[in-house]
Amino acid sequence: MPGKCARSTLSQYLDGEFQDLKDRLRQEISQCELFHLTSYDLTLDETRDLTAERLHFVLQLPEMRRHLKEQVKERQNRFICKSLGIAEVICTADLATGVKMGVVCGLFGGAVTNLGSPEQKEKWYLPVTELQFTGMFAMTERGHGSNVRGILTEAHYEPSSQEFIINTPCEDAKKMYIGNAMKGNCAAVFAQLIVNGESQGPHCFIVPIRDHQGVMYPGVTAVDMKHKEGLHGVDNGILVFNNVHIPRENLLNKFGSVSPDGVYHSPIQNKSKRFNAMLAALTPTRLALTVQALAAMKLGLIIAVRYSHSRRQFGPRDQEEVKIIEHQTQYLRLMPHLAAALALTFTTRFAAEMMDEALHHGRDLMNSRSLQALVAGLKAYSTWENLACLQDCRECTGGMGFMMENRIPALKCDSDVFVTFEGDNVVMLQVVVRELMTQYTKQLESNAMFGLLRNWTSTASDSLRTSVLGFSMDKVGDLAFLLKAVSYRERVLQRSLAARLYTKVEKNKDEFFRAWNSCLHHVTSLALAHIHRGRR
Amino acid sequence: MPGKCARSTLSQYLDGEFQDLKDRLRQEISQCELFHLTSYDLTLDETRDLTAERLHFVLQLPEMRRHLKEQVKERQNRFICKSLGIAEVICTADLATGVKMGVVCGLFGGAVTNLGSPEQKEKWYLPVTELQFTGMFAMTERGHGSNVRGILTEAHYEPSSQEFIINTPCEDAKKMYIGNAMKGNCAAVFAQLIVNGESQGPHCFIVPIRDHQGVMYPGVTAVDMKHKEGLHGVDNGILVFNNVHIPRENLLNKFGSVSPDGVYHSPIQNKSKRFNAMLAALTPTRLALTVQALAAMKLGLIIAVRYSHSRRQFGPRDQEEVKIIEHQTQYLRLMPHLAAALALTFTTRFAAEMMDEALHHGRDLMNSRSLQALVAGLKAYSTWENLACLQDCRECTGGMGFMMENRIPALKCDSDVFVTFEGDNVVMLQVVVRELMTQYTKQLESNAMFGLLRNWTSTASDSLRTSVLGFSMDKVGDLAFLLKAVSYRERVLQRSLAARLYTKVEKNKDEFFRAWNSCLHHVTSLALAHIHRGRR
């Protein structure tokens, strides 16, 4: 049976090394009645309760508890690869549960484990893995979403009590869109650390929000944000802090700490670099988002492709109507997304392996700049590709694709916000290009102007060769030629962007933000060309 | 105050000749408390009830009643233009109400008024305008959505009782996605008319569904289709007929009638042409859909552009952050949609005027083939453009754009099905190209092969001239050059498609459906190029 053999080999490739674990999880979930319910008829509160119960079910599975404890103790070799495998299975079962698990384990858990000391992990994350409480991640504010460096929440150190006082000084400083805000017990809150009147930039603090009975701690307010396009099971809210006192030990202290008498210490002196290091440490959750998008995409494709093989419409005169997958437009709309899903599966795994290796060797993720850029690019590309894919799946399944029972609409609505959260996609593309420009400048070493000119010349000769090759029609299906073409596109865009920025900033003395902004369309085109080409 | 003056002139242009009527309607609606409610917290049934109440409110407005009565009596000069103006106002207030009004007045009302006799209009549509009952439109079946010619519902004529017997012979014949199916009183049902054992093709019958107390008529079943991605206020259902007897007078008889003793008469002998004539008579509702999409698009743009002028994020070092509309990517994402909304506004009005003129002069819409093609193309282009626009509005407003209270998500979910209903967009593009190919064949008159060759030659010389012009950079902003470019693209695609089809069908003797299907991507590219160029 070569067909069966081929299928199982493909599923092995798709699931990768953790296929057995994923299969066991799939089986556990498929046998759990909580996942058999649909939520269309439920109220918002009932939907959130169902999601919380589903998350609790997942977290208490022995496999999951074993895995999460690894995050607290010594890191396993393949922790990130394994986490992503698990995330995909949960998201396929229910995206809201997957996203809520991402908030509790990835964002809150990631903040504690990547920004905290071993003692802080024991104190704040071990109980989560033991289902004693859940956490949330409070970075975004009303006034600052993409530009998180500008957050306004304050954390004043008070030496007399050895406490930090967390405060929301104004409307714009309110923490917004916080997932698990209406149910969670404590939050990883980013605030400007102020010691002796001097700001040390944003740091992360553990702030208790409500006790196990749901009673709020003094000074903390959580406002329900209620109805969203999707992810109804995730309770997003607004957090406001009115001079909330927390112990000194609640500052996650890997990148900065305050001594009892109020002296600030940090292994990184530059404030901006320090914050970059914190953000870099949180990169793994960004890669998880790629996997969440992939889960939605694969599920949508399975539904749409299967339907297209069963539905018949139109056909040759006086003959049976043909399967709609045989309509040229139908397969030309669906198949490229299937190809993209496969390409993204393997590129994501490649990035996860690089990350695991970096962490295994104790390297700071801040120093893996090209990995940062790859992950930012993958986040943008995969979440956009997911939306385009699901939209085609929706349209290619006609009226059926508009009915909630067929899952595609909910997948679309749930994953729509993926292009925004964990870093807006347009900002992500700029992260990619800043890295490309840095590499480019390094390559050119000394004389920037000379380098640019030399490169422009070689671009011109490239152009000639490529366009001559382009005339041969059989080249279109030749992978080596296609790779050459996408590399060429990227190179031309990169060199011309460098030249434009050089002229604006170095020659015309334009302010950098203005210069960069006037090239932003060029920047995003280059970023997409880079991601499209794939691995370095 | 030149600014104010410019604005009011623009709004005059946008609203067109019915600005005063539209303003009065806007005021009536804005003062109606039913439209102040939000439906996120309501159950599905409550949402549907609210929509029904909103529709009732709109239909009882004196302006509306006057307008609808015009549809029953002698047609006014500008009936379609006026209807579209009204539809836009209602859809801007609430898309579900606008769509439900479209079902009751446009689809059911349009079937009765365009396929029925004057007496049938008096009997079946006048009561709707007097709020005595509401109707629905039952064409689509489970087995046949796009290919409606293949519907399976049967209407047998029984001379002994002078009745038609409407029957659903199988699962695939069930009428699906029928709007107002859970609340409406009677349906315009398309069924294969069978007289003396001979089928005369699809015809439209008025079938009573439920009385004023909601009691179903014998033999009729309506199954609730429940939860959809959007348009929650529209009650879609499945209709099943188990040998339902209706009087002979319930066959809408403009294009075909049966005498008491069972003799079939029709002004059109060819069955296929007859059905085409019926479909053509229903074209106005397709144009209404373009207006519904435009309403969603304009509203989304207003929200996104205003937000982009108030939100600030990032900026030059040590200066205030800039408004996000100043980010190059932000305005490059939003402004083309604004331009498209304007272009579509005027093109739609142009099509409506053509349609009004044809109807005013008593011309059958079937004979205005190029108008049919324009409307089909506008339907596809505007509904896709709307979705692309709303998606950019959603993304450009960040997290805010994911919150239901900011309307963009609901607009997106409600209007998503516009690309499917009233004719799937991919099918609409094929309607456009069939018309283009017919015109092309006519142009070539006699010797097809010779004509093709001659045209290919002129294409080649066009190509040369255009590419030389293309080198001059200032041409890019020159409207005459751009029009030349889009015409050129269309011409090349049209000639090459004709040549490909000619080779396949005439030379290689391929079956037509297969030949056409193997060019389907080419077909859709040509259709979009044609619509993109705009007016003929």
Automatic annotation (TrEMBL), chains A, B:
Annotated transmembrane regions: none
Pfam families: ACOX_C_alpha1, Acyl-CoA_dh_M
InterPro entries associated with the record: ACOX_C_alpha1, Acyl-CoA_Oxase/DH_mid-dom, Acyl-CoA_Oxase/DH_mid-dom_sf, Acyl-CoA_oxidase, AcylCo_DH-like_C, AcylCoA_DH/oxidase_NM_dom_sf
GO cellular component, one term: peroxisome
Signal sequence extent: none
Sorted UniProt keywords: FAD, Flavoprotein, Oxidoreductase
Domain Acyl-CoA oxidase/dehydrogenase middle: 137-244
Domain of life (superkingdom): Eukaryota
Example GO molecular function: acyl-CoA oxidase activity
Single GO BP term: lipid homeostasis
Acyl-CoA oxidase C-alpha1 domain residues: 281-437
Cofactor: FAD
Protein name: Acyl-coenzyme A oxidase
